[in-house]
Amino acid sequence: MRSFILLLALVLAACTPGPGKPGRQVPPADAAGLAVYLTASEPLATEVSFELNGLALFNGVEWLLLDPGPQTISAQAVGEGQMLLGFFAVPPGDYTRLRGTVGPARVSERGDGVRLVGQAEERELGFEAKMRLVAGQRACLLVDWRVRSSLQDKDWTPVLTVTPQMPAMTRELLYVACDDIDTVFVVRMDTNHVVAAFGVRGGPTQLRYDDAVPILYILARETRLITGHDPYGNRQLSRAFLGGLPEPRYWDLSRDGRWAFVTDTDQALLQKIDVTSGFVARQQSLSQRPGRVLFVAEAESGRLRRELVAVAMPQAQLVAFFDPETLEVLEPASLTPVGAGALTGVDSGMEPGQMLMVQGLLHVADRLSGTVTIYDLNRGRHLARVAVGLEPVALLAGKQDRVYVSHAGSSNVMALARGHHAVLKDVFVGPQLGEMARHLRRGSLYVAVQGTQAVAVLDLNSDALRAQIPLPGRPVSLLAVE
User: Fold this and answer.
1) What is the mean pLDDT of residues 19-40?
2) Which of 172, 209, 331, 472 is most buried, by CB atoms within 10 Å?
3) Which residue has the higher pLDDT, 214 or 418?
4) Are 179 and 450 within 8 A, CB to CB?
5) Among 291, 298, 246, 293, CA closest to 272
């Protein structure tokens, strides 16, 4: 009984937040966070649905209620994707079974209307191996509904299986950070299904990847940590405390995977930090509050063939360049040091944010101006300022010389023609868009849709919407590993 009361209190305190709900919905520190997803395999031509009620977990002693509310499960609505059944705060323990009440099937057939098949019954699903949850952990429970097998000979016998998360058996993974629930989700990019989750305390935000190791790095603003994780086993490998930065907000990783370049808006600082130990190798005090950071590798800088650190300065409406070795400010045209105390850079629109460097062309998303500034690093001059709509927040290079722009103030993703500085296409995606990622070989563009708490999947060739990946939290950062 005590466990049931504890679980009820945890669920009330940290149930799945609704789309657009403000504030952090982090499960209590003494609980784990469990996301339950459902897929529908063995599809039928006819529409089949049923009602699922009273999900509960068995810990070897008693059943712990997860969600007392009914949910309608539709094979047509789930399709080839997933349905999020909920995100629950769960007490630590070993769990071996999932239970729920399955209602009669509603079968829609052409010309015959809707018929009810079978009766409501309670179903218990055993795990192949026990699921151990500890405080602060995040995990997924994956339920599969075999639709055709559930309707043999027009009789309703629901066939459901359940599997706790396991290490992904593919290297084609998308990582999605949800800062409001302290969780990073792992998505298989061949199926676009969530397969795992792990916890990062303190609001995980920007994700970076070193493919030479390989290792996934995550900045958590509240705890002021950059943690390194095994990208396939979800184990933490390193921990760098940013003690000298009261409010670390943005960062980028050097191409060799050794250095983190981090900005602090409160102290107006740029630091060069050892990404595994937190050792501060260089520090630059700035006269303006810095914003986003972009490390420019030699291969991205065009004919200049040199590395740079670009930092957006929102209040000054410019992008400043820094030498990655010394953090000296560089003059934009000549890329030579300008001297102590001076701050110069490339003029941008109002509130420059995310930056993208492609073949020596710097693209800057000017959020308040609704423009993208394009600067030719090789020639040291502005090329264009393209009007792209309300609040552009993210930029990504795609196929066929395209640059994609997502917007927080509209529901669209725009495709720009690189080099021609013209809008090619405007695609509706969803409200309050954020970061993007891509898988070029599969031709997939992933877009964070914060307004519906999902990741949209677009076809890079046709720009058509392929899928929606539902999430229990707000996606703030995406990273694709091909």
Assistant:
1) 80
2) 472
3) 214
4) no
5) 293
Length of the chain: 482
CA–CA distance, 46 with 198 (Å, rounded to integer): 37
* Residue 461 burial (10 A CB sphere; 0-12, 13-18, 19+): exposed
Return the number of other C-beta atoms located less than 10 Å from residue 62's C-beta.
13
Q: Is residue 11's pLDDT more than 50?
A: no
CA distances from 392 to 22, 193, 266, 429, 460 (A): 21, 28, 24, 14, 19
Rg of the chain in Å (alpha carbons) = 24
Residue 8: per-residue pLDDT: 38
The C-alpha atoms of residue 52 and residue 34 are separated, in whole angstroms, by: 18
- Contact indicator for 464, 422 with CB cutoff of 8 Å: no
Amino acid identity, residue 288?
A: Q
Tokens of 6: 């504890």
pLDDT in tens, 174-229: 999 999 999 999 999 999 999 999 999 999 999 999 999 999 999 999 999 999 99
Distance CA 106, CA 49 (A): 5
Q: How far apart are CA 364 and CA 384, in angstroms?
A: 11
The owner of tokens 């810990």 is 59
